[in-house]
């Protein structure tokens, strides 16, 4: 038998054609109808599989009825006898039982339509009835219907189906058959372990036609009968193919529809995904902006955060924030920050006046959103430009949102794009939300700045102005905590004493606010009194400890007190719980005076030890509070190590040293107040500080006047070779002060030993920065000149403004 097997659980159209062809081939050449029937039974038994490479049918029976059933030697009669047309089991594969009393060579040949067959095999009897092959005439002759039939019985339809073949797992029975020739018919019964789908049952109608052809090939069928069988098979096959084609076309149509719907759904999902990503980005950006605005107290950084966030949210080509200020010519608006382009793009434009387009925003009348601002009737009415100034970035889409707090317009956001119709109502809502957050943040920052300036002012009034002492160059600094609004308790003092002595003091009262500042003021006053009495450093600290315990019980203060004897070049120091002073010898060695440190002030009467060290000319001494070296992200030991490195490195004019060290150690991020006192003992008269200072009005004529003063002074000091460099530095620094401060300014030139320092003091809080200008523009390039010429330069804030300084070596 052939080796091809067909999976009955996945029987399809191609399997139907192949199965029929192979069946006809297997039966071809059978010597008799019975042999053909047996080959049919063998084919189905061997070829049908259950999907797991097992046999699908444990039993297959093939029944025949017709003239060939006449027993050998029987007399011929006119027409087939009724008994001859009774179906008999002509072919069988599988287990079976002999009928009781069966005899003869073929005990399986059973006259099915008999009463005993109905009792012994009721299911097969009913199958034949449903195939319409068991209905007989009065003589018992069978009358098979025309064509073919297929009957399927499953286990859910027939109780006791498994009892037919015990232990074989029969799940369904499939019977198919029909007329072979006039007066002849056949039937095939498949006992299957596989539950058959309705689709598979339908396909066996065509298999029935192939089975009929196979059985006819072994008989004496007339050519007309074989032709009729072929025609019927072709018709069944065409009908089946037609049905499948119709179903396939329907499936293709459904698939196309489903594909179209799937693509539409995919596009919708992709669009939704993009929208969700955009929404997530917007939410993330809003959260980031809100956190930054809530935490930021520096006005410049705050507004930059806001403009950057709003520019991204609106999709603008550029965005700007104009701070609402009153200029010299009436209302004008200072360009505070810009996003999307370099700020230098606006350097050559005058400050915008209260034009018709700007008026609604700066008066707080509402939001202005335009798809094309050039078509707005308010556009282009202000001379001399009548529109955008020449060289201005192109603007068609325009969005302006006022930033208001408690009815006051703090400024406005302005956004532009060269294309039309960029800004939508949603963009307007998003920017309006950022503007509201910015207004609150600006109010907080302004309040912080005012309170901080008040705290610094209080601290400055409590701190003394250091007197000048012959033979000593001194400088001091006080910086409140970078993010603390209250006054602190840090202080420094320099107290001249008789006989060439000078007392040096640094201290820190723990805590913040007015109480700490008040305690600090009392301690400082008492310390000056004790110093004037000529008490030794240890005795001063003992008295101060008792004082603190009395005026502020529970308060703790630290202090380092030293007395410098310039005649003996000796320094006596005592330390009460404070960081030790740092001493640099003339040779550059650095040491901390930390050998004898006593407890803090305020713990009652306590004896303090003194330490005496040499302090000859050329030495430098630094007294400081812990805010200089201690930060949350840096251990105090690392800060002290860094301070030692700075003191041991190159040093110069003491004012410049102070600014440079503060930048290196604190950088504007200090968590506590910083106070320091820095002294230098020049080695000879040439090391004494020489100072020349002039005041100038904020007019352009101040620049050449200051340059002449610098050139003349440099010649007087015998430093002609530096005159040109210092004049270039003076040009840039004075011009910046005139341009930005617009208030009186002071120019001071100092010489100490091998250093010359130029300082320019003005009232503007805006500090110069190194900004790279685009090619073809020349703004912001002067500060690069200063950076290239000066040994070092920097800025420091003072009461009412700032100081910009630059230091140059004389050799």
TrEMBL record:
Highest taxon, organism lineage: Bacteria
Coiled-coil stretches: 248-289
Ranges of residues in domain PPM-type phosphatase: 472-681
Domain GAF, residue spans: 298-452
UniProt entry keywords in alphabetical sequence: Coiled coil, Hydrolase
CDD domains: HATPase_RsbW-like
SMART domains, sorted: GAF, PP2C_SIG
InterPro entries registered for this protein in UniProt: Bact_Sigma-Reg, GAF, GAF-like_dom_sf, HATPase_C_sf, HATPase_dom, PPM-type-like_dom_sf, PPM-type_phosphatase-like_dom
Name of the protein described by the UniProt record: Magnesium or manganese-dependent protein phosphatase
Organism: Streptomyces glaucus
């Amino acid at each position: 038998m052939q080796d091809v097997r067909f999976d009955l659980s996945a029987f399809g159209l191609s399997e139907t054609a192949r199965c029929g062809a192979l069946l006809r081939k297997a039966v071809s050449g059978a010597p008799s109808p019975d042999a053909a029937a047996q080959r049919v039974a063998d084919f189905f038994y061997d070829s049908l599989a259950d999907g797991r490479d097992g046999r699908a049918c444990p039993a297959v029976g093939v029944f025949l009825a017709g003239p060939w059933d006449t027993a050998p030697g029987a007399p011929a009669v006119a027409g087939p006898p009724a008994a001859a047309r009774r179906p008999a089991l002509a072919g069988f594969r599988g287990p079976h039982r002999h009928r009781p009393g069966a005899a003869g060579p073929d005990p399986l040949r059973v006259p099915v339509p008999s009463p005993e067959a109905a009792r012994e095999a009721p299911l097969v009897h009913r199958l034949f009835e449903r195939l319409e092959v068991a209905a007989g005439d009065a003589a018992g002759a069978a009358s098979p219907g025309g064509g073919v039939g297929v009957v399927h019985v499953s286990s859910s339809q027939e109780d006791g189906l498994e009892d037919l073949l015990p232990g074989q797992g029969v799940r369904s029975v499939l019977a198919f058959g029909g007329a072979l020739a006039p007066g002849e018919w056949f039937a095939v019964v498949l006992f299957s372990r596989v539950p058959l789908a309705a689709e598979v049952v339908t396909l066996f109608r065509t298999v029935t036609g192939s089975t009929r052809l196979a059985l006819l090939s072994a008989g004496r069928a007339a050519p007309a009968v074989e032709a009729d069988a072929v025609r019927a098979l072709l018709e069944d096959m065409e009908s089946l193919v037609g049905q499948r084609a119709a179903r396939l076309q329907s499936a293709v149509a459904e698939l196309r529809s489903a594909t179209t719907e799937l693509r539409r759904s995919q596009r919708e999902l992709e669009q939704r995904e993009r929208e969700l990503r955009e929404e997530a980005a917007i939410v993330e950006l809003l959260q980031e902006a809100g956190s930054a605005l809530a935490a930021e107290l520096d006005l410049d950084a705050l507004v930059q955060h806001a403009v950057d966030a709003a520019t991204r949210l609106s999709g603008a080509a550029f965005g700007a924030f104009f701070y609402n200020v009153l200029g010299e010519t009436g209302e004008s608006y200072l360009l505070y920050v810009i996003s999307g382009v370099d700020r230098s793009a606006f350097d050559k434009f005058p400050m915008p006046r209260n034009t018709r387009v700007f008026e609604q925003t700066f008066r707080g009348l509402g939001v202005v959103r335009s798809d094309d601002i050039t078509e707005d009737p308010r556009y282009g009415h202000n001379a001399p430009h009548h529109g955008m100034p020449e060289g201005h970035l192109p603007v068609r889409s325009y969005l302006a949102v006022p930033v208001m707090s408690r009815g006051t317009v703090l400024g406005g956001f302005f956004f532009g794009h060269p294309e039309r119709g960029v800004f939508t109502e949603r963009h307007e809502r998003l920017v309006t939300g950022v503007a509201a957050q910015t207004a609150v943040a600006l109010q907080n920052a302004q309040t912080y700045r005012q309170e901080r300036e008040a705290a610094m002012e209080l601290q400055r009034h409590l701190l003394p102005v250091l007197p000048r002492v012959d033979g000593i160059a001194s400088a001091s600094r006080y910086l409140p905590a970078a993010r603390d609004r209250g006054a602190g308790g840090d202080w420094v003092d320099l107290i001249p004493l008789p006989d060439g002595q000078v007392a040096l003091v640094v201290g820190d009262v723990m805590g913040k606010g007015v109480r700490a500042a008040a305690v600090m003021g009392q301690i400082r006053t008492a310390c000056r009194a004790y110093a004037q009495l000529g008490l030794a450093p240890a005795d001063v600290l003992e008295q101060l400890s008792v004082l603190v315990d009395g005026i502020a019980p529970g308060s703790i203060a630290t202090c380092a007190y030293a007395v410098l004897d310039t005649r003996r070049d000796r320094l006596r120091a005592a330390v009460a719980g404070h960081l030790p002073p740092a001493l640099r010898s003339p040779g550059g060695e650095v040491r901390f005076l930390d050998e004898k440190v006593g407890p803090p002030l305020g713990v009652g009467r306590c004896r303090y030890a003194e330490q005496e060290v040499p302090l000859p000319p050329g030495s430098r001494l630094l007294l400081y509070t812990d805010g200089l070296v201690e930060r949350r992200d840096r251990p105090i030991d690392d800060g002290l190590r860094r301070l030692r490195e700075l003191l041991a490195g190159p040093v110069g004019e003491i004012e410049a040293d102070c600014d440079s060290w503060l930048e290196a150690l604190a950088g504007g991020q200090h968590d506590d107040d910083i106070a320091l006192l820095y002294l230098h003992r020049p080695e000879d008269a040439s090391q004494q500080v020489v100072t020349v200072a002039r005041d100038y009005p904020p007019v352009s004529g101040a620049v050449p006047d200051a340059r002449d003063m610098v050139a003349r002074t440099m010649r007087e000091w015998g430093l002609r070779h530096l005159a040109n460099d210092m004049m270039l530095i003076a040009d840039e620094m004075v011009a910046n002060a005139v341009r930005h401060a617009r208030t009186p300014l002071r120019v001071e030139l100092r010489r100490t030993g091998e250093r010359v320092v130029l300082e320019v003091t003005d009232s503007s809080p805006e500090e110069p920065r190194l900004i790279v200008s685009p090619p073809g523009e020349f703004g912001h390039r002067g500060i690069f000149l200063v950076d290239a010429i000066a040994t070092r330069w920097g800025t420091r804030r003072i009461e009412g403004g700032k100081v910009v300084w630059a230091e140059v070596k004389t050799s």
